[in-house]
Write a structure and sequence with these properties.
Elements lengths: L13 H12 L4 E5 L19 H4 L2 H4 L2 H6 L1 H17 L4 H12 L4 E4 L5 H5 L4 E3 L2 E8 L35 E5 L8 H13 L2 E5 L10 H8 L3 E5 L12 E3 L3 H13 L2
Parallel strand pairs: 1-2, 1-6, 2-3, 6-7, 7-8
Antiparallel strand pairs: 4-5
Helix pairs in contact: 1-10, 6-10, 8-9
Bound molecules: adenosine-5-diphosphoribose.
The site of adenosine-5-diphosphoribose has 26 residues, from loops.
Length: about 270
């Protein structure tokens, strides 16, 4: 029986773990910037990087733009219901839980996430801002009024290509869209202002599970460094942020973050 190789299990170098733990031990105001890789070990597809990632299977322009929604709202809504169902079935992984422990240990601890899932919240983290919106924050495509959240059954759409008619707005009868930031849309101001306020003050930034491919989110790492933060990268791969990192834990979040906490507790 061939051993199943865990794609995320990389051996974190002890010297990297020691350095990362010493930086965290010295930190008064740690924060985290997370991306899709944070939720990979919860079974949620990332956008880039592997054959099974979302943008390797569909073009963003086909699904994650206002034009795509105008042209085929059932296809777009069906795809997002499939993604909402996947999040409903997923559980926070050990990486989310480790960040929730940090949220309790440092009252300042803040999470700036590019993710639209709710796994940081479900793990118990508190100070969180979603730069790209939230899968479950529905609103009307026509009048932009919020639409009540509804329970998404785990088998909401048994395949990503199932066309589903979006619900209608209770105020104007328009069609409901997911509350995520689509390509070509402006990022909402409030999360960005919150993110820059937190990262201007933080003295250590954990950069977890992001390919550094999407601006302006990716620029927040350089921004935090400019304001004096140390940077710990948590990613099995090198990224555009590698040159900004004081230390790189080359492993999955669900392996590296509990190891980091454990090393911290032993120091
Ligand atoms: N732990 C940590 N990192 C991981 C793991 C893991 N288990 N698995 C994969 N990764 C890394 C990959 O190496 C990659 O660098 O996570 C990163 C995922 O990159 P993307 O899929 O590009 O996700 P992200 O950086 O969050 O994308 C940014 O792009 O499509 C838009 O709006 C979408 O918010 C998203 C934005």
């Amino acid at each position: 029986m061939k051993a199943v190789v865990d794609p995320y299990r990389h051996s974190v170098r002890p010297e990297d773990l020691d350095l990362a733990a010493s930086l965290l031990a010295a930190s008064k105001r740690p924060a985290a910037l997370t991306g899709a890789g944070m939720s990979a070990e919860s079974g949620l597809a990332t956008f880039r990087g592997t054959h099974s990632s979302l943008w390797s299977r569909w073009e963003p322009e086909e699904l994650a733009t206002p034009r795509a929604y105008r042209e085929d709202k059932e296809l777009v809504w069906g795809w997002y219901m499939w993604r909402m169902g996947a999040v409903a079935r997923a559980q926070p992984n050990a990486g989310h839980k480790a960040l929730a422990v940090m949220s309790r240990r440092w009252p300042y601890f803040a999470i700036v996430t590019q993710n639209v899932d709710n796994l940081h919240e479900r793990a118990g983290s508190t100070r969180i801002t979603h730069l790209h919106g939230g899968l479950f924050e529905h609103r009307c495509f026509a009048c932009a009024r919020p639409h009540p959240e509804f329970v998404v059954p785990a088998d909401a759409a048994d395949g990503p290509q199932l066309r589903l008619a979006p619900p209608r707005c209770l105020h104007c009868g328009g069609y409901i869209r997911p509350g995520v930031v689509w390509f070509g849309e402006q990022m909402p101001e409030e999360p960005w202002n919150q993110a820059t306020a937190w990262l201007r003050e933080c003295d250590l930034l954990l950069v977890i599970g992001t390919s550094a491919m999407v601006q302006p989110a990716a620029s927040l790492v350089g921004f935090a460094r400019q304001h004096g933060a140390k940077v710990v990268l948590v990613n099995p791969e090198d990224t555009g942020h590698s040159s900004l990192a004081d230390v790189h834990l080359k492993a999955g979040a669900a392996e590296a973050l509990p190891l980091l906490l454990d090393r911290l507790d032993r120091s």
